[in-house]
Design a protein that fits this description.
- The complex is a heterodimer of chains A (204) and B (478).
- Chain A contains five helices and twelve strands.
- The longest helix of chain A is centred in the first third of the chain and has 13 residues.
- Chain B has 22 helices and ten strands.
- Chain B has 478 residues and is an alpha/beta fold.
- The chains are: A alpha/beta (204), B alpha/beta (478).
- The interface between A and B is large, with 74 and 98 residues.
- Strand 9 of chain A pairs antiparallel with strand 9 of chain B.
Chain lengths: 204, 478
C-alpha cells in the first residue's frame, strides 16, 4: 500500500467485507407470495382518497373544465404544465403556463392542474412522474390547491402493479391526500407545507 | 487487492448514540413525570389501534413481513457489492457519492460540501442518520445554521430539546408547551397565537415557507436506496420533505449503508410495510423518489453520503446483524410496555425503544450502552409488531450475555449466587439464615429493599416478606 492512501471508500468497503468474511449464513431466497395484482375497483380508489380527505369528483372528460370552474374563484390563477390538455381548463381562470415560472409566481397561484401517471386503488394514492402533462415537481408543491385528473385506465389495484408501471429514472411523487401532520398530540392537521387541498377528478 | 480492515464501532465524543446516564437512572426520572406518561400512553395506544386497523385490511401482511425480512437479510449478506452497484448507478445519473467511515468523517464531508456552496444555512428533512452523527451541532460549529423543517423536529429544535420518539419526536410536549415554545423562539410569530394544533401548524407553515424558498442547500436522510437503479426514496407526511428535495440547488443525502435494497421491485414490499406499521396509514401522504439529477427539475447538484459509523461492527455479528434490517417504523416503540412508561429520553440514544435497546449497544460497543439490553421485559410484543421480523427478544438476550462477558468479574450477582450455593449445601447455616431473614421483618417494613450490593435487585421489585414460620420449622413441629 506504499504511496497510496487508503480512501474512506476502501476503508468502509474493507470493513464490511471483513465483517462478512467468516459468514456462515446461507444465501437467501426472497419469497414473493404476497398479493401482486387484483381487480381494479374505482369505487375503492374514490373512497380511500376521500378517507384521506382528498375531494373526489367523478365526471366525464368533457366536464373537467366545468368541474374546475366550480372549484376556483373566477379570475383565479392556475399553474399549467406544458403538456396539459387545453380543454381541461375553464375560460373563467387565468392560466400560468410553466415556461420556467419562478417559485414566487407558482406559490402565489390559486391552484395547479396536473394529470397523473398512475393511481393505486387500495392505498388511495396518485403518482406523478413529471411527464409533460404533470410538469416539474415544484408545480404541484407550492400552490395551495392541487387538482389532479386521473383516467380510469391509469388506476391499478396494488402497490406492486404501480411500481411495475413506473419508470425509476423519472422524479416520482406519490400523493395520498393533502399535506398532513399529527405531530401535536396526534391530532391530524391538514396542509402543513404542501397543498392544503387535493382535488382528484376521476374520469371513466 | 481489496483492503480488509476490522469492523469498528461508532466513535465517542460525537453524535447521539450514548446517554449521559444509565437507563435505570434516566427512566426513574421520566417515571416521575405524569404528563410525559399520559402523553406516551395516549400516543402509543392511538397509533397501535390505527396500525392494527390497516394491517387487518392487508390479508397478505405475514407474506409481506416474510418477504421484507428476506430482502433485508439478503441485502446484508451482499452489502459491499450492492453499495458499489448503488454508487455506480447514482454516479451514472449525475450524483456524487461519498463514503464516511464514522460520524466525524460524515460531519466533515457534509460541512465541506455546504461550505463549497457558500451557504450559511441548510434546510433539513427529519433524518435519524443525521441525528445519530450530531450533524446539526457540527454545522453550527462551522457557522452554518441547520433548520429542521419537520413540525415535530422544529418543536424539538426551538425548544432546545431532544426527540423522544422515532416517528413523533415531540410527543412528550403538549399543545400549551408547544405554543409557549413558538411564542418564545419563532421569529415573527403572531403574539395572539392560540394552542389549537391547526393554528400551531399554520404558524410553522408561515415561518418556514420563506426559509424553504430562500435556502439553496438541503440535507436529507433516505428511507430506501435502490442499488439496481440508483433511486433514493423519502417517505413523509407534511410536504417539508418535498420542499427540501425539490426547491434547493444542492441536495445532500446522508444514508446509513444498510438502507440499500437490491431491486426496484423490492420497494413494493417496503412501501406496503412501512406506512401501515409506522403511522397506521395505508400510505403516507407523500413519498418522493429521485435518481441522481434531472435537468430542469429539482436540485441540480446531488451528493449521497454513505455512512458506516459502527454498522460494519453490527454486520460482523451474525446474530446481532438483524438489527440492521430496521426500517425505522417505530412499531416496536408503540407496543413496548417499558417504552410506554419510560419514554424515549431514557434510552440516551437517538434510537429509543426496543430497537434502540439492541441497535445502540451494537453500534457503540456493549460497554457504552451496557444497561440498554436490560430495558425490556422480554415480553416479545416488539417481535410480533416488527414488519421485518427482527427477533428483538433474541437479540436482547444475546446482548445481555455480551454485557455480562464484558463486565469486570466477579460481579455482585456471581458472588451472591456462589454464597447461596455454599449456604444451601450446609443445612444448619441455611436454617440460621432463614431465622435471620425473619428477624429482619422486625427491623424493617416491606419495600425497604436489601442493603448494598443487593439493592440492585430490590430497586425495581418489592422484597417478599419472609414467612413467620419456615417450611422446615413447620415440618419439625408437625
Amino acid at each position: 500500500m506504499v504511496g497510496r492512501a487508503v480512501t474512506s471508500r476502501d476503508l468502509v468497503l474493507g470493513r464490511l467485507r471483513a465483517a462478512l468474511a467468516a459468514d456462515t449464513a446461507a444465501p437467501v431466497d426472497v419469497p414473493r407470495d404476497y398479493r401482486q395484482a387484483a381487480a381494479v375497483d374505482l369505487d375503492q380508489l374514490a373512497q380511500r382518497l376521500a378517507d384521506y380527505r382528498a375531494h373526489v369528483h367523478r365526471v366525464a372528460e368533457g366536464a373537467v373544465a366545468d368541474t374546475i370552474a366550480d372549484l376556483l374563484p373566477a379570475g383565479g390563477t392556475v399553474v399549467v404544465p406544458p403538456g396539459l390538455p387545453p380543454a381541461w381548463l375553464p375560460p373563467t381562470v387565468t392560466a400560468l403556463p410553466d415556461d420556467g415560472l419562478d417559485h414566487a409566481r407558482i406559490g402565489a397561484a390559486d391552484a395547479v392542474v396536473t394529470a397523473a401517471a398512475v393511481a393505486i386503488a387500495q392505498t388511495g394514492t396518485v403518482v406523478l412522474d413529471a411527464s409533460p402533462d404533470q410538469g416539474r415537481r415544484v408545480l404541484s408543491l407550492l400552490p395551495d390547491r392541487h387538482v389532479c385528473v386521473v383516467r380510469a385506465d391509469q388506476v391499478v389495484a396494488t402497490v406492486p402493479e404501480a411500481l411495475a408501471r413506473l419508470t425509476p429514472h423519472r422524479p416520482l411523487t406519490w400523493i395520498s391526500g393533502p399535506s398532513a401532520t399529527s405531530d401535536i398530540e396526534l391530532i391530524r392537521v391538514e396542509g402543513v407545507h404542501g397543498p392544503r387541498q387535493l382535488h382528484i377528478i376521476l374520469l371513466p | 487487492m481489496p483492503t480488509t480492515t476490522p469492523p469498528v464501532t461508532a466513535p465517542t465524543g460525537v453524535g447521539h448514540l450514548r446517554g449521559d446516564e444509565s437507563f435505570p437512572t434516566a427512566a426513574r426520572r421520566s417515571l416521575a413525570d405524569p404528563q410525559l406518561r399520559r402523553n406516551l400512553r395516549h400516543a402509543t395506544t392511538t397509533i397501535r389501534a390505527k396500525s392494527a386497523g390497516v394491517i387487518a385490511e392487508q390479508s397478505d401482511w405475514e407474506q409481506l413481513r416474510t418477504a421484507g425480512a428476506a430482502i433485508k437479510a439478503d441485502t446484508l449478506r451482499r452489502l459491499p457489492d450492492l453499495l458499489e452497484q448503488l454508487e455506480e448507478k447514482v454516479t451514472g445519473a449525475g450524483g456524487v457519492v461519498h463514503w464516511a467511515a464514522d460520524a466525524v468523517e460524515a460531519n466533515r464531508v457534509v460541512t465541506d460540501l455546504v461550505r463549497a456552496t457558500g451557504a450559511d444555512r441548510v434546510i433539513k428533512v427529519k433524518s435519524m442518520a443525521t441525528q445519530e452523527i450530531g450533524l446539526n451541532e457540527a454545522l453550527e460549529a462551522a457557522g452554518i445554521t441547520a433548520v429542521e423543517t419537520d413540525l415535530a423536529e422544529l418543536i424539538v429544535q426551538l425548544g432546545d430539546d431532544r426527540p423522544s420518539h422515532i416517528l413523533v419526536p415531540a410527543i412528550h410536549r403538549n399543545r400549551a408547551e408547544i405554543r409557549e415554545i413558538f411564542l418564545r423562539e419563532m421569529p415573527g410569530v403572531d403574539p395572539a397565537l392560540t394552542d389549537d394544533p391547526t393554528a400551531l401548524a399554520a404558524a410553522a407553515r408561515r415561518f418556514l415557507r420563506e426559509t424553504f424558498l430562500s435556502t439553496p442547500v438541503a440535507v436529507s436522510g433516505a428511507n430506501f436506496a435502490v442499488a439496481e437503479t440508483g433511486t433514493l426514496a423519502v417517505v413523509e407526511s407534511e410536504g417539508n420533505g418535498r420542499m427540501c428535495l425539490t426547491l434547493p440547488e444542492t441536495l445532500i443525502t446522508v444514508m446509513g449503508v444498510e438502507k440499500v435494497v437490491p431491486t426496484w421491485r423490492d420497494l413494493e414490499v417496503f412501501l406496503q410495510l412501512l406506512p401501515r406499521a409506522s403511522t397506521g396509514e395505508r400510505m403516507n401522504p407523500y413519498t418522493s423518489m429521485w435518481t441522481g439529477v434531472t435537468p430542469g427539475d429539482g436540485p441540480q447538484t446531488f451528493h449521497l453520503v454513505l455512512l458506516d459509523n459502527g454498522r460494519s461492527a453490527v454486520l460482523a455479528d451474525e446474530v446481532g446483524r438483524q438489527a440492521l434490517r430496521c426500517i425505522r417504523c417505530s412499531a416496536c416503540l408503540n407496543v413496548c410496555p417499558v417504552y410506554e412508561r419510560a419514554g424515549g429520553h431514557a434510552y440516551g440514544s437517538v434510537y429509543p425503544g426496543p430497537i434502540g435497546a439492541v441497535l445502540s449497544p451494537q453500534l457503540t460497543g456493549i460497554e457504552d450502552n451496557a444497561s440498554l439490553p436490560y430495558a425490556s421485559t422480554l415480553c416479545g410484543a416488539c417481535y410480533d409488531a416488527c414488519p421485518v421480523k427482527i427477533n428483538i427478544p433474541e437479540l436482547l438476550v444475546h446482548l445481555r450475555a455480551e454485557a455480562v462477558e464484558s463486565r469486570p468479574r466477579p460481579t455482585a450477582e456471581s458472588i451472591a449466587m456462589a454464597a447461596a450455593a455454599y449456604t444451601m449445601d450446609r443445612p444448619r447455616l441455611y436454617a440460621a439464615g432463614q431465622r435471620a431473614a425473619r428477624l429482619s421483618r422486625l427491623a424493617g417494613r416491606r419495600g425497604r429493599g436489601l442493603p448494598p450490593p443487593l439493592n440492585g435487585w430490590t430497586a425495581s421489585r418489592d422484597l417478599p416478606e419472609p414467612p413467620a414460620q419456615t417450611f422446615r420449622e413447620w415440618w419439625a413441629g408437625r
